[in-house]
């Protein structure tokens, strides 16, 4: 059983609006400790889960982050984001107008994606801040965020400098993420904590808390480039920290699972974690995302076979 050391804090009433930058709170960070392992859901059968799988489609950040990306590949990705399910599948399910939550690309393809998504409400998300390692000079990382926002990205997926978490330099991590949030302006900030490289569940919990403290709109598991990426256990720890943050401040922060999620059954597991830990609102795209490139085709196959 996973236990997070109780944090003595006064519960705050729910707040509306975007999670703001909060003051650095070393005592709150120090009070967090995780022991044991999470009792996470096992893989779930997709039979009878058509509605949940459709909702999962609506929460996908459809992603291409390959060294050989081209404008044509990005255009095809955007076309799939606009029409993720074939018309015959939509007709069978009695639905229409389904899109993915966002399209996630490198900075070089912002213009291509914006043009391909014109006339829709699908935002362009961009990886930034020295993705995937976060080790380039801070000024360069901040400039990268600013340039992507100026080019039209509405969501920015930054990656933290893992060394700061691994050495307990929480103030340094806070200062960097805060700078990225300020550079984002109106664009929403998703902070990738690279769970598989943080060494312990306690570090995962503390990094999650620090990123929320610095104003992140979402906390995200992985870049997809690590040896270990998203897992239900990491998701559970992060969800519990989101719950703690809401109790402490009243603000809601979203969660994004990313890295290696390719099967419909896996999407259902992450939905279950969110439902169990945070409630039904965290099944909606404004608070839940799945970063994926291969997941959509597997979900579509399952929906095609649904009774």
List the domain count as a whole number. 1
Q: Average pLDDT value?
A: 94
| Low-pLDDT residue intervals, each spanning 5 or more residues | none
Q: Give the percentage of residues in beta strands.
A: 5-15%
Largest sheet: 8 strands, parallel, barrel
CATH class: Alpha Beta
Within the largest sheet, what's the order of strands?
3-4-5-6-7-8-9-10
Count of runs of 4 or more consecutive helical residues: 12
> How many distinct beta strands?
10
Short key terms for the protein model shown above:
alpha/beta, 8-stranded parallel beta barrel, TIM Barrel, 10 strands, 307 residues
Mind explaining what this structure looks like?
The protein is α/β, with parallel strands linked by helices and 307 residues long. Helices cover 42% and strands 13% of the residues. The chain has an 8-stranded parallel β-barrel with strand order 3-4-5-6-7-8-9-10, surrounded by 8 helices. Strands 1-2 form a two-stranded antiparallel ribbon. Helix 11 links the parallel strand 9 (254-258) and strand 10 (288-292). The longest helix has 18 residues, at 232-249. The radius of gyration is 19 Å and the shape is globular.
Short description:
By secondary structure, the chain is of the alpha/beta class. The chain has 12 helices and 10 strands. It has one domain (46-304): TIM Barrel (Alpha-Beta Barrel), CATH 3.20.20.70.
List the helices and strands and how they pair.
Blueprint: E1 3-4, H1 26-30, E2 34-35, H2 50-58, E3 60-63, H3 71-82, H4 87-93, E4 102-105, H5 110-116, E5 124-128, H6 138-150, E6 155-159, H7 162-166, H8 170-184, E7 188-192, H9 201-213, E8 218-220, H10 232-249, E9 254-258, H11 264-278, E10 288-292, H12 295-304
Parallel strand pairs: 3-4, 3-10, 4-5, 5-6, 6-7, 7-8, 8-9, 9-10
Antiparallel strand pairs: 1-2
Helix pairs in contact: 2-12, 6-8, 8-9, 9-10, 10-11
């Amino acid at each position: 059983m996973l236990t997070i050391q109780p944090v003595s804090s006064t519960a705050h009433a729910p707040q509306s609006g975007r999670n703001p930058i909060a003051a650095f709170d070393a005592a709150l960070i120090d009070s967090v400790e995780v022991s044991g392992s999470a009792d996470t859901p096992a893989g779930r059968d997709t039979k009878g889960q058509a509605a949940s799988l459709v909702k999962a489609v609506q929460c996908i950040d459809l992603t291409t982050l390959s060294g050989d990306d081209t404008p044509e590949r990005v255009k095809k990705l955007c076309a799939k984001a606009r029409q993720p399910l074939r018309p015959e599948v939509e007709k069978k399910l009695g639905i229409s107008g389904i899109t993915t939550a966002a399209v996630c690309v490198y900075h070089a393809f912002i213009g291509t994606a914006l043009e391909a998504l014109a006339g829709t409400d699908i935002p362009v998300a961009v990886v930034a801040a020295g993705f995937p390692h976060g080790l380039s000079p801070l000024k360069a990382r901040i400039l990268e965020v600013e340039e992507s926002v100026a080019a039209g990205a509405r969501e920015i997926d930054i990656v933290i400098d893992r060394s700061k978490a691994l050495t307990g330099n929480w103030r340094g991590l806070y200062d960097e993420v805060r700078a990225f949030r300020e550079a984002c302006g109106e664009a929403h900030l998703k902070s990738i904590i690279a769970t598989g490289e943080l060494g312990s569940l306690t570090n995962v919990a503390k990094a999650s808390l620090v990123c929320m403290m610095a104003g992140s709109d979402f906390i995200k598991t992985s870049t997809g480039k690590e040896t270990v990426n998203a897992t239900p256990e990491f998701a559970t720890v992060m969800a519990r920290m989101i719950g703690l943050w809401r109790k402490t401040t009243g603000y809601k922060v979203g969660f994004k699972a990313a890295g290696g999620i390719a099967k419909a059954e896996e999407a259902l597991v992450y939905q279950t974690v969110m439902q169990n830990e945070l409630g039904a609102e965290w099944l909606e795209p404004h608070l839940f995302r799945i970063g994926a490139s291969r997941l959509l085709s597997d979900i579509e196959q399952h929906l095609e076979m649904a009774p």
